[in-house]
Design a protein that fits this description.
- By secondary structure, this protein is α/β, with parallel strands linked by helices.
- The chain has six helices and five strands, in the order βαβαβαβαβαα.
- The protein has a five-stranded parallel beta sheet, with helices on both faces.
- Helix 2 packs across helix 3 and helix 5 packs across helix 6.
- It is globular.
């Protein structure tokens, strides 16, 4: 199974990325975590992206706040899919990061989840990897059934 590379722009994002790690673990997907900045360590970020495929990664998840150019920098240096997680900041509540992550130029896509959407980034990565992994696809199908069952139970129990 291919693994997932999680790159955060700052170590201060680690706590907000725990739901990502938990979901990858739930699906049995190996992952590695790195810290690299599009602005403070651009050469390191580029090298991480350039070598990710050869190191066995199938998807890169990039978490960055404020200017949030990390996803785009990584995407510019790899053919692997990149999922951006715009991180919430104290300044603009993550709207700056959301816009910086989602507004990529033609030819350099970054799939983008919600602000602090680490849990969904892991699920999206799992769906990407499941294209070539039937066992993982089965795990995802079971997960979707569980979501449906929980919603059905809530529907049956709801009262006003």
């Amino acid at each position: 199974m291919k693994s997932v590379l999680i790159v955060m722009g700052s170590a201060s994002d680690a706590e907000a990325l725990k739901p990502c790690a938990r979901n990858l673990e739930k699906f049995g997907i190996p992952y590695k975590v790195r810290v690299a900045s599009a602005h403070r360590s651009p050469d390191s970020a580029a090298l991480i992206a350039k070598t990710a495929k050869a190191e066995g990664y199938g998807v890169i998840i990039a978490a960055a706040g404020m200017a949030a150019h990390l996803g785009g920098v990584l995407a510019a240096h790899t053919t692997l899919p990149v999922i951006g997680i715009p991180m919430k900041s104290a300044v603009l509540d993550g709207m700056d990061a959301l816009l910086a992550t989602v507004m990529m130029p033609s030819g350099v896509p970054v799939a983008t989840v919600a602000i602090n959407g680490a849990a969904n980034a892991a699920i999206l990565a799992a769906e990407m990897l499941a294209i070539a992994d039937d066992e993982l696809a089965d795990k995802l199908a079971a997960y979707k059934r569980e979501l449906n069952e929980k919603t059905a139970a809530a529907d049956a129990a709801i009262e006003l």
